[in-house]
Design brief:
By secondary structure, this protein is of the alpha+beta class. It has 19 helices and 26 strands.
């Protein structure tokens, strides 16, 4: 192409002109933070923005406060840069094209997070590679991941605390409801007892008043004893009613004590004398010790005696025969006392050698209606209010009471601590008439006095029969009543527990045993079982008396071998007829076996041995032939007799009501008793002659069968036959 002009001629070939295909190279030329160029080493908050030059950096770290910035980029084309067109994208979104010649983009108020910025350029028809950088905007501390974890933990803790609080509140509410229910139950019990007590008072008055008239007008000694027994038990019922009334008064705040200055030594001495006879009859050593001859203190005599009486009654209840009860009275000082009044005090300690109290029950025994669950307490059908009343009365006396087990010995002790002086008392609590009038002691009416049994033996009538009846009963009143009522027909003997009764039965078997079930040391069921297992006394009939009226209890008593089972309260006539019938039936059986019932002495009988007799004869021959053989066994006898061991055991059990081993042992013991009566050999020789390898075992087995040791048996036989 040729062009002419004023300056000359221009000539060129269009095919010689070509477009450049060079690809643009894009870079980040600058980064502005609040219009300030960013350089290496600059910080945004606690973070380094970049670690290299801007043109080489591919990651920018900003704080949440520096979330407004500008980015400048260049295609590195300095010839006619306005022809270059730029496009950008944020977080892989669609591309946004800028106006030609614009190479700067600004962002403001970006939310914390990580952003990917991409940019590219276009030069005519050529595109550059995509330039990519990462921009991190850090969140504030309260929006970091660890802060979120902390928030979650805090929320979990708060929820857990709320749940625990709700559960604790629920449990507290449940405990409160249980406490309220228990209080309502106790209140219902007490209200029921109070209502019954009010109903009982009227008929009791109608019983006691005419009874007092009879006691004053009837001079018959036999009836006087019955009157006194009725009167004592009527007073016992009234005393229980009064205890319920006292607890009700204390609960309602209606118990107002009137304090008098009283000689505590003499007061406690009177109470001690009240129990002296009971201690003698039960063989319990009762002692009283005081560190002074006289001790003046302010108490309410009408209510303070209930404290000591309850503790002494409790001690006698749980102290076995040949035990001990000790009362100690002394004064003391305690500067660290919880109240000022108890800094100068006197103390009463009632200590016994009884069964003691389980540690878990030490704090509960003062609760209302609570009774210790102990086998030895089954015979004491108490109400569970005595100790509760005692603690309430002690607290009304401004004192304290506690219980502790004895250290290193059986039993427990109750410690009552009361203040001396009257500074702790208010004026309206003091009794105005506090002259030398002696304090009245309310004695225990249920405790028999020596006058009750005066000339008792002299007044006994001659019995109609020769039969001996043993009455085993731990309640002295019932025992004496049964013995008195049956004394006209039988010779009666009494004891207070099963252990004592077993010794008497083994020594001299009675014709009948009447036993209570619930007794200390050995109950009636155990006594019945031991008697029925002993071949020397298992023929003695046994009548069991009990307050349990369930069918299961009746079956249990009969399964132990009892001949009769009578439920309390019982008719004395039914007991009398039952006793007479059992004795008569045993007498008829004895006549049958002895041949006295049918006189056939003159009739010549045919001597024909039955198979059972022949078996017993063979067994006895083997035992007699091996009397001194300690190795004699059931298998040896079975082999000699010619039957199996099981069949031998079954037949002997059927014929003798004994196992084979017991049969062998009892035959040897009977032979030993015969040798002991002759007194020709020592005990060790007799044990060896009768097949006992161990002398100690021989003595134990002999005592179990005959109720006494071999030595005592020899002495008894010597006394019965002095000529020998």
């Amino acid at each position: 192409m040729i062009f002419g002009g004023t300056g000359g001629i221009t000539l060129f070939n269009p095919r010689a002109i070509t477009n450049s295909d060079r690809k643009p190279e894009i870079r980040i030329s600058d980064f502005y933070l609040h219009d300030t160029p960013v350089r290496k080493g600059m910080k945004s908050g606690n973070h380094d923005i970049i670690s290299t030059a801007v043109t080489e950096a591919d990651r920018y770290h900003l704080s949440y406060k520096d979330n407004s910035f500008s980015i400048e980029f260049s295609a590195m084309e300095f010839y006619s840069p306005e022809r270059i067109t730029y496009s950008y994208s944020l977080n892989n979104e669609s591309w946004i094209s800028l106006q030609p010649g614009i190479n700067r983009i600004s962002f403001s108020d970006l939310a914390p997070g990580t952003y990917t910025f991409r940019v590219k350029s276009k030069d005519y028809n050529s595109y550059s590679d995509v330039k990519k950088i990462t921009i991190v905007v850090s969140p504030p501390w309260y929006a970091t991941w660890w802060a979120r974890v902390a928030y979650v933990l805090i929320v979990c803790i708060i929820v857990t605390l709320i749940i625990l609080q709700i559960r604790q509140h629920y449990r507290a509410r449940q405990r409160m409801l249980e406490h309220i229910h228990a209080e309502q139950l106790n209140e219902a019990k007490l209200r029921f007892f109070i209502n019954i007590s009010h109903e009982i008072r009227t008929p009791m008055s109608l019983i006691i008043s005419p009874l007092q008239t009879l006691m004053n007008t009837d001079n018959n000694g036999e009836r006087q004893k019955s009157y006194k027994m009725i009167y004592r038990n009527a007073e016992r019922i009234l005393r229980l009613i009064n205890q319920l009334m006292d607890i009700r008064k204390i609960d309602k705040g209606q118990m107002h004590l009137r304090f008098e200055e009283t000689d505590i030594v003499g007061f406690v001495q009177d109470l001690y004398n009240t129990f002296a006879y009971q201690a003698t009859t039960k063989h319990i050593a009762l002692t009283f010790q005081s560190d002074t001859q006289e001790m003046k203190a302010w108490i309410d005599p009408k209510n303070f005696d209930k404290i000591v009486l309850n503790l002494l009654s409790n001690a006698f209840k749980f102290t076995p025969e040949n035990g001990s009860i000790h009362i100690d009275l002394h004064t003391g000082e305690d500067p660290n006392a919880p109240t000022t009044a108890l800094q100068h005090y006197f103390e009463i300690v009632v200590e016994d050698s009884g069964i003691g109290i389980a540690e878990k029950e030490l704090e509960r025994i003062f609760e209302r209606f609570y009774q210790i669950a102990d086998r030895q307490n089954q015979s004491g059908m108490g109400t569970g209010i005595g100790l509760h009343l005692t603690r309430s009365l002690v607290e009304l006396h401004h004192g304290s009471i506690r219980v502790a087990n004895n250290e290193g010995k059986p039993g427990c002790r109750f410690i009552i601590r009361l203040p001396l002086g009257k500074e702790h008392l208010q004026a309206n609590e003091l009794e105005e008439n506090t002259t030398e009038a002696p304090a009245t002691v309310h004695r225990v009416s249920s405790v028999p006095t020596p006058t009750d049994t005066t000339n008792e033996e002299e007044e006994k009538k001659r019995t109609k029969t020769k039969f001996q009846v043993l009455v085993v009963e731990d309640d002295e009143e019932i025992c004496r009543y049964i013995c008195h009522e049956l004394g006209k027909e039988f010779h009666t003997h009494e004891c207070n527990n099963g252990k004592e009764a077993l010794a008497i039965v083994l020594k001299k078997a009675p014709d009948l045993i009447i036993s209570d079930i619930m007794m200390p040391e050995m109950d009636g069921l155990t006594l019945c079982k031991k008697i029925k297992q002993n071949i020397t006394v298992n023929h003695v009939p046994i009548i069991l008396l009990t307050a349990k009226n369930r069918e299961e209890d009746n079956l249990e008593g009969l399964s132990m071998g009892a001949d009769a089972y009578i439920v309390k309260p019982f008719s004395i006539e039914i007991l009398r007829k039952t006793a007479m019938n059992l004795i008569k039936s045993r007498e008829m059986l004895r006549n049958n076996f002895s041949g006295n019932q049918e006189q056939e002495e003159r009739v010549q009988k045919m001597e024909v041995a039955s198979p059972d007799e022949r078996l017993l004869n063979r067994v006895m021959k083997v035992i007699n032939d091996n009397m001194g053989n300690a190795n004699l066994s059931v298998e040896m006898i079975a082999a000699e007799v010619g039957i199996s061991r099981v069949h031998l055991h079954r037949k002997l059990k059927e014929l003798t009501n004994q196992s084979t081993r017991d049969f062998i042992r009892n035959v040897r013991l009977k032979q030993a008793a015969t040798l002991l009566a002759e007194k020709r050999h020592s005990i060790a020789e007799i044990a060896s002659l009768t097949g006992f390898a161990n002398t100690a075992y021989f003595s134990s087995a002999f005592k179990e069968l005959y109720g006494m040791s071999p030595t005592a048996y020899m002495e008894q036989r010597d006394k019965e036959n002095p000529s020998k």
